[in-house]
Amino acid sequence: MTKNIISSRKQEVPLQDDTSNIFLQVMVCIAVFLSGVALAGVLAVNAMLNSWNESILGALTVQIMPVVESNKDAGLAETLRQQSKAVEFLKQWPGVISADPLSDKDLKHLIQPWLGDGIEVSDLPVPRLIDVKIKKDVPIDFANLSVSLAKVAPLASIDNHKIWLDKLVKFADSLRLLAFVVLVLVIVVTSGAIFYCTQTSLGLHRYVIEILHLMGAKDTYVAQQYARKASFLGFMGGVYGLVLAVPTIFIVSGFAKQIEGGIISETSLSLTDWGIVGSLPFFSAIMAMLTAYYTVKHTLIRYM
Question: 187 pLDDT exceeds 80?
Answer without folding.
Answer: yes
